[in-house]
């Protein structure tokens, strides 16, 4: 893919790529596959939305087709070989943090639903929204173990007690 073979100096300029952010290789592929399936889903549902006389449905359908193009451009740039800037866009998107991708993909998927709330827009954007959710879950990170959590809680409690003692001493 585009981010795995990039120059080492390019990824250090802004954010670390996904593999340095704690994503495993299979989860990264799951996110990409979800993005491609979401693009196909958006494109097909967008075409069906455009076959109507209602202007809001047409606007939602055009937005969904645009979402499909952007998802393919970001997640599978090899599908857009005829576009000169596809690899550069994909490299820039790979340097984004997972939470930024999550907000971007979920935001793109919600707009057509707000424009025209129909079953076609809901089902068509569900996989694209799920891609954003997957990236959001990866931004949260792995679940911590109970020992680490208890240690953090104990440190916070000790810090609170010290703060309370200093405040009582000042009064």
From TrEMBL:
Q: Name one Pfam family in it.
A: Cg6151-P
Q: Which InterPro entries match?
A: TVP18/Ca-channel_flower
| Family named by the database record | Belongs to the calcium channel flower family.
Species name for this entry? Answer: Gorilla gorilla gorilla (Western lowland gorilla)
Its chief place of residence is membrane
Q: Looking at the record's lineage, which domain of life comes first?
A: Eukaryota
Q: What is this protein called?
A: Calcium channel flower domain containing 1
Which GO BP annotation is one of this protein's? vesicle-mediated transport
Question: How is this protein positioned relative to the membrane?
Answer: Multi-pass membrane protein
Keywords associated with the record? Membrane, Transmembrane, Transmembrane helix
Which SMART domains does the protein's record reference?
Cg6151-P
